[in-house]
Amino acid sequence: MLTLLWLLLPVAAAAGWFAARRSGAARPEAFWNYSANFHEGLNKLLNDTGELPGELFDSLDDTDKDTADTHIALGNLYRRRGDINRAILLHESLLDKPELGEQVHAAALLELAKDYDSAGLLDRSEDTLRKLIDSGQRLPESYGAMLVLHERERDWDRAIETATEVERVTGENRSSVVAHYYCELAEEAKAAGYTDQAKKLAGDALTRSEQCARAHMVLAELARAENNHALAIKHYANVETLRPALMPDIIDSRFDALRKVGDETALRKFIDHIRQQRNAYSVIRTTRSVIEEMDNVESANRFFKDQILQRPSLKGLRDWAQDQIAVSKVGEREKVQVICAMLDKVVEDKPTYQCERCGFLGNQLHWRCPGCNTWDSVQPIIGAEGE
Ligand SMILES: [Zn+2]
């Protein structure tokens, strides 16, 4: 990584200077003088040899539009290395120079907000972003950073406020994210035992976005907790319609609600519905056990075989091999057991969810990806190695 930086940064410095030169603004000596200081500072930074050379800070007084970008980049490198004080010093120094213009100031403010954030000075970070937003500069980035800040603090009320402001100022539609913020509040209220408030907040989520499958999940769970299983079934059906990939996450609860309603016709109708489509493995496995309970093992095994042939998966193969242990001849049983043990190990090591955006892997559903902070990007892994 460091080698790559060494190779790229002189190129970046030169590219910046040549780009500026094309605009007729750069002086040849500005590049070479600056470049010498820049590389000396970079040397210290990458070799971690302690203090920055005094010349670099002396040269801050001479910063002009040609070299401001490089000061910003050097500050960013310090921040990434964890040396926040130097990053703040470099970025703040640019704000004392009105002659650098609005664009340089906006870029320095945005980086300064990130510096404060990295230092845990969240209030200062927020104040800096607000200053930037009020100036009308770099709105997409500053609003984006402000929302990430509220999300990290789990301040969902302020996140709703800011996202609504983004919609008003930029005309962007943020309804699906705002619906998640309401769902977060609904789940907090549900966990605290405020059922009515949780219902209202999940309803607010649906008012902001009718497509919010998560709100239906929350409402289904609240309905089950109140033994209103018929209502829970309706909400689960909406989850499937809006986001079929969530079926593995609701299948157990949905069958449980159907059983508790006690309507066998509705239960069989739902099993037929599953039978007619290709299903995730968790859906196949749960439905198999329901059929076995309602009818018999043979009928359940027939369903299982038909389904895993339609959508082969390692988990299906593992469970099928497990079934073969009981029916194997004495001499073969040990071999099948070895195969099962190996498949167990393979399946156990496989993650079940993946972020479509950054590739984050995990074993539980995250509404917001922990890797890239994107909402609704984590999906169950479908295919031979997943569901
Ligand atoms: Zn991600």
TL;DR?
By secondary structure, this protein is mostly helical. It has 19 helices and three strands. The protein folds into three domains: 2-170, Alpha Horseshoe (Serine Threonine Protein Phosphatase 5, Tetratricopeptide repeat), CATH 1.25.40.10; 174-262, Serine Threonine Protein Phosphatase 5, Tetratricopeptide repeat; 350-387.
Overall residue-averaged pLDDT value: 85
Per the CATH scheme, the topology name of the largest domain is Serine Threonine Protein Phosphatase 5, Tetratricopeptide repeat
Structural class: mainly alpha
CATH class of the largest domain: Mainly Alpha
CATH superfamily of the largest domain: Tetratricopeptide repeat domain
Low-confidence stretches: 1-28
Number of domains: 3
Please give the number of β-strands: 3
The ordered H/E elements are HHHHHHHHHHHHHHHHHHHEEE
Could you explain the architecture of this structure?
This protein is mainly α and 387 residues long. It has helices at residues 2-22, 28-47, 54-58, 65-81, 84-95, 102-118, 122-135, 139-152, 156-170, 175-191, 195-208, 213-225, 229-242, 247-261, 264-275, 281-294, 297-310, 314-327, 330-348; strands at residues 353-355, 361-362, 378-380. Helices cover 73% and strands 2% of the residues. It has a three-stranded antiparallel sheet, with no helix packed on it. Strand 1 and strand 2 form a beta hairpin. It binds zinc ion. Zinc ion binds next to loops. Zinc ion is lined by residues 355, 357-358, 360, 369, 371-372, 374, 377.
